[in-house]
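Lecture notes, part 5. Sequence design as translation. It can be helpful to think of inverse folding as translation between two languages: the language of shapes and the language of residues. The source text, in structure tokens, appears below.
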């Protein structure tokens, strides 16, 4: 019942195209060259076999997981922005529900000595039945018995913990998984207000201000 009312705010359309119904792109496009690569795949320059038009396409590496969820509900940031455009905000029970789901994800990561390092609304996705999934591990870090802390300053400015930001200038500084807890706290404010604190400020200025406040 709760999940049904939750998605009443952001309805799923049954007319959405499923991946199984998509055509094989190789029947219409030829790969010309590789123009970039990232954590999850490569970007290719392609040419259309019929009209010769060119485009860029990202090809993901094969997914080797036992469970895979299609998060058609989009990100919680999408949900917030959509509500604000209608003059509404997320209600506290729904915020709690989203944060609980994100905390379960962080608990699993931290129990396995993994720091996410980029927790924010855009990296919390929703499934069509109201499931909450923490995503994007592009800057995550694996801790080990020999290395229980990290000192690389990575993340998205407004959500970064002070100790993570400080590592940019203070080379003797370090942090552990608790930096994700700070980022989730900022995400809680984002869910309630629509934006993280200091959102009106230039990101570079925010990076200087956060460790000093």
């Amino acid at each position: 019942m709760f999940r049904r009312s939750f998605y009443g705010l952001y309805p799923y359309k049954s007319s959405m195209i499923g991946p199984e119904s998509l055509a094989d792109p190789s029947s219409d496009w030829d790969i010309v060259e590789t123009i970039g690569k990232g954590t999850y795949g490569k970007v290719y320059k392609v040419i259309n076999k019929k009209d010769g038009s060119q485009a860029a396409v990202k090809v993901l590496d094969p997914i080797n997981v036992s469970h895979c969820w299609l998060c058609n509900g989009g990100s919680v940031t999408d949900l917030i922005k959509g509500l604000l455009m209608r003059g509404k905000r997320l209600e506290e029970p729904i915020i709690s529900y989203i944060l609980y789901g994100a905390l379960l994800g962080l608990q699993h990561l931290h129990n396995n000595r993994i720091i996410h390092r980029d927790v924010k609304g855009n990296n919390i996705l929703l499934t069509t039945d109201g499931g909450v999934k923490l995503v994007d591990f592009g800057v995550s870090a694996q801790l080990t018995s020999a290395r229980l802390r990290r000192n690389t300053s990575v993340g998205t400015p407004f959500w970064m913990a002070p100790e993570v930001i400080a590592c940019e200038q203070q080379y003797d500084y370090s942090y552990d998984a608790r930096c994700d807890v700070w980022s989730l706290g900022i995400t809680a404010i984002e869910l309630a207000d629509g934006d993280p604190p200091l959102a009106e400020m230039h990101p570079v200025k925010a990076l200087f201000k956060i460790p000093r406040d």
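The translated text above is only one of many valid answers, since several sequences can fold into similar shapes. DSSP finds six helices and seven strands in the chain.
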